[in-house]
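Apologies for my clumsy wording, but can you show me some protein sequence, whichever is easiest, together with the matching structure tokens, please?
=====
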Amino acid sequence: MATAHIESNKEDIAEIVLMPGDPLRAKYIAETFLDDYKLVNSVRNIFGYTGYYKGTKITVFASGMGIPSVGIYAYELYKFYDVKTIVRIGTCGTVNPSVKLLDVILAESAYSLNTFPLLFDGDKDKEYNSSIILNKKIISLAKKAGISLKYGKIITSDVFDPYVNGEKFIKNFPVDNYLASEMEAFGLFYLAYKLNKEAACLLTVVDSKFDNRSLSSDERQNSLNQMIELALESIINKN
């Protein structure tokens, strides 16, 4: 079986998918965290890998950047490969002064001005929620691991917000206490809602309007590893 964008056989894709944006991050996750992994997709260099994490079959599949790209891969995985759960993991920026660099954020919902739902099926809502069940698992496991997790609403933007004026940017949205801004979660949450699937989103803050520090590669990677492990533990947890 193959789709227009995925060359994998159906049996090569697990029911649980971890979805970074960057194809090379997908490769890193497979090499670092999975056993007996294999490359299952390389069409357009959007890499997908399937292996085992603590005995559970997991697929790590890149989404590319932006709602149109995540919309393609999430839809095809949900619809044609019978994927049940997708957890997006990625980086984000913030215009919220209470959010610090390297904080880990769990998205309760994503708000966007994007027209993806309207074009997909005539839907006009601008905010979609993530999975309550998945979020409860992630929050519980974060507490047990001593990870300080921020939980709340995020923005999914069509522009890379560090390039724009923060005050003007936030005025486009109905409230001003969003934890973070990224570019994919809204599309993922919408498709999970439409197709009766599960979706969650974990993010590491790497850019802030209130902190001009340059993070080292080690700082970024250590924080990302913590987030990746939290995502993996949550999706294999049966409780």
In short: The radius of gyration is 17 Å. The beta strands are 16-20, 35-41, 48-53, 56-61, 85-94, 104-111, 127-129, 149-156, 180-182, 198-208.
